[in-house]
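Homework-ish question, so no full write-ups if that breaks the rules, but can someone show me the predicted structure for this set?
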Amino acid sequence: MSIVEIFKAAKASSSALARANSNLKNSALEQIATQLESNVSAILRANAIDLENAVQNGVAAGLQDRLRLDEKRIASLASAVRLVISLPDPIGQNVDGMTLPNGLRLQQVRVPFGVVGVIYEARPNVTVDIAALALKSGNAVLLRGGSAAENTNRILVELIQAGLELVGLPKSSVQTVDPFGRQGAVEMMQARGFIDVLIPRGSASLIHAVVTESKVPVIETGDGVVHMFVDESADIEKAIPMIVNAKVQRPSVCNALETLLVHQSIAARALPLIATALEEKGVTIHGCEQTLKYVSGVAATDEDWKTEYYSLDLSVKVVPDLDHALGHIAQYSTHHTESIITENQSNSERFLQEVDSAVVMVNASTRFTDGGEFGFGAEVGISTQKLHARGPMGLRELTSTKWLVRGNGQVRD
Amino acid sequence: MSIVEIFKAAKASSSALARANSNLKNSALEQIATQLESNVSAILRANAIDLENAVQNGVAAGLQDRLRLDEKRIASLASAVRLVISLPDPIGQNVDGMTLPNGLRLQQVRVPFGVVGVIYEARPNVTVDIAALALKSGNAVLLRGGSAAENTNRILVELIQAGLELVGLPKSSVQTVDPFGRQGAVEMMQARGFIDVLIPRGSASLIHAVVTESKVPVIETGDGVVHMFVDESADIEKAIPMIVNAKVQRPSVCNALETLLVHQSIAARALPLIATALEEKGVTIHGCEQTLKYVSGVAATDEDWKTEYYSLDLSVKVVPDLDHALGHIAQYSTHHTESIITENQSNSERFLQEVDSAVVMVNASTRFTDGGEFGFGAEVGISTQKLHARGPMGLRELTSTKWLVRGNGQVRD
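A: Not a homework solution, just the prediction itself:
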């Protein structure tokens, strides 16, 4: 098939999906979960080819790990699909409604987008998560995964399509454009009229390219220069586990901590304790001049304040007060997640109000910004833009709305 | 000021607006209404210059009329501002919330976008409407109006700024980039980091240019190839006033009827009556072959089915059944508004379900797709995209959300 034929098939299948009721969609998901469980060895064979190529191409160990499937991970792919079955179906939900003085009855209801395009890197679990969420929300989906996962994604998409066909839904509801290579992504960005929304997931450069080049509406995701601020009144004993958790539990993801701001009046007491706990986990501190009076580390550069390390590095800055913390965040944040550690109610409320980020926290690890943690099931991504969706995106964020108007002959004066 | 200085000033003022409570925003709007009422002669002088230029430049009469202000129209600008005062403030409203098993309390609240950019054509009322809606929803706004209204818009923005300053809000909350000409619009489309959303209002070509070129997230508006379908079971007596109203009440706007589809089993009876009523109002029918067996008109071309006439022209097609009506709409609609005229409940529900447009109606004139009619007060525009907003956009559609998370030391396992 040509890529335009793929686009047309996606569009055609979106009508069937929009009409599918919850039972039918859930049956399809159950069949998909079963297909994954029944074809473990075939999936592993395909994955082994991708892993071998990755080794030969010198792909970094961390990326190889993200790419690798084993029996346990395949079982958790199936569990993720079954979790989506258990979530309420957003389609048809009432959003708003009113009766006008002239008797017109207005009803705003949730409807699927139609066709959702997702461009992402070599993580096979994303293929299954996105397909499950898209199907449950009545959308057809076009996938462009990283070429390093091409063989794994091909069999996953085949199994998903087999599950769809078993319940009578069109297999073109879930398609990959991977065979078209980079051109597949470029064509998706031009596909106005075929694709209703495009979601890039992955590196900052991938997301930047899609956001600036796409002619299809985009939801920008990811990219977290995430801050925590240790306020004057912070309980240091409580602060340390939150800071360590935010930095080291999974440093390679977007909700991991990148910059710690510390109120100067607590810095002498808190910083040595925080640094000891971080150093035990192998964290390197990039400190401002004042920070390095209290703890050892390398001198922070201007670039560090803008950097999402994805590693066991942490920028640390001592600030004179809450205003300066807010100012630093306003200047350097990517508007993903920020958290204040404080026992002062008015400071916490000011932080919640004034920080302009998708998720703003008080006394919690920034690692909680996650669709799974928020109870959305699998996650489409974390939106850092303000249009349409902000923060973790689940089923509801994969829907649009339409207005239904019921009259009996009304005309406008 | 350079245009970048204007962008920076808008961004700076957006923080003050985000913190402004409803009383302060309403006081600003009241001052703005008063400024408009107290400066009628100055507004008329500026408008007279624009009108004189329009005459000299041979601007079409319809556009001249949209540009013209008089005492009555200025009074209605002030009334529109006061109507916005009376609307509920969306900022701070709860959208969603839950407490997680680990005790984290999540709250999703409405927040302003920040800075909204609007690119529109020479209609001074849009300047005032948009400014009022943006301010009430806590947003700074950058305006690029049509150059034909430049003098009128300049004084309107000055009066709005005077109103803002009287209550202590920054005057840079509402600014125009008109002095930068076309380049102003181009710069706005590039202004990522300064402008959170860009809304084009106006001709199809203007909207197309913004949608495809902007690097800032866009809400697509307007452009209505609007359909009505006269079903087999339609009550012809009821149908005629709806069709006439939809076509002739204001043919130059996006919710006016462009294509009438008629079920073949009712065509012989209904079409002559419909045509007579339309001809009385000066409408020219562009009919399919079958249509022209029953009524006089010009032969419809393929192009006609795609055309938004903005005039007293109407494409008319006889279709064999509801399926063909749905198929024609799926092929040619711009997904703005479609209406079915029917007495058959199951056909009306199928039409509501299957037509993929922002507003889908049963037995109502398509002219009701309008923010004012929907009770939103003035209107930002009518979104024909599926991302973020769909259909008439009021205050709620000028907001984003953020998640507030309150914990007491939670870390992720």
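Now go work out the reasoning yourself. Hint: The two ends of chain B are 52 Å apart (CA to CA).
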